[in-house]
Amino acid sequence: MTKKMFLLFSHKLTPKQILDAKSSLQVEEFVYLPEKLQTLWSNIPPHNIDIDAYLLPIKNFLVKNANKDDIVLIQGDFGAVYNMIVFSKQRGFIPVYSTTKRFVEEKVIDGKVEKSSVFEHVMFRRY
């Protein structure tokens, strides 16, 4: 059976993340959320006290498409992340997140300091 990584986050994987997932987690297929579900995940409502019903379409997608021991990369709104970690563990999926190293660069341009941060993937870690 092909091992899949389901992507619950708001970015595209970098080439380094893809290589790491293949080598360290034996992932053979990467599954992005369909556009409608991606929009849901990227726009968790900040005023909802309970988001269980809101996350139900994403949970249903995973139930229909993921197998036991498939990887679920989960990053985003803290409450939604926690909710999906618990759900994933209950279903036998493996929830992970990407650890990163931050590089900060400061430049003085026209008397103003511009600061930029670049994040580089280090590894995937299980929740």
Could you characterize what this model shows?
This protein has helices at 15-25, 35-42, 52-65, 78-91, and strands at 4-8, 29-32, 71-74, 94-109, 112-126. By secondary structure, it is α/β, with parallel strands linked by helices. It has one domain. A five-stranded mixed β-sheet has the order 2-1-3-4-5. Helix 4 (78-91) links the parallel strand 3 (71-74) and strand 4 (94-109). Helix 3 packs parallel to helix 4. The protein is globular and about 55 Å long. The model has no long low-confidence stretch (mean pLDDT 95).
What's this, in brief?
This protein is α/β, with parallel strands linked by helices and 127 residues long. 37% of the residues lie in helices and 35% in strands.
Please state the CA-atom Rg, rounded to the nearest Å: 17 Å
Poorly predicted parts: none
Mean pLDDT, to the nearest integer, reads 95
Number of extended strands: 5
Order of strands side by side in the largest beta sheet?
2-1-3-4-5
Q: How much of the residues is beta strand, in percent?
A: 25-35%
Helix content: 25-40%
How many alpha or pi helices? 4
Question: Distance between termini?
Answer: 24 Å
Give the domain tally: 1
Class of secondary structure makeup:
alpha/beta
Order of helices and strands: EHEHHEHEE
Oligomeric state as shown: single chain
How do the helices and strands line up, and which of them pair or pack?
Layout: E1 4-8, H1 15-25, E2 29-32, H2 35-42, H3 52-65, E3 71-74, H4 78-91, E4 94-109, E5 112-126
Helix pairs in contact: 3-4
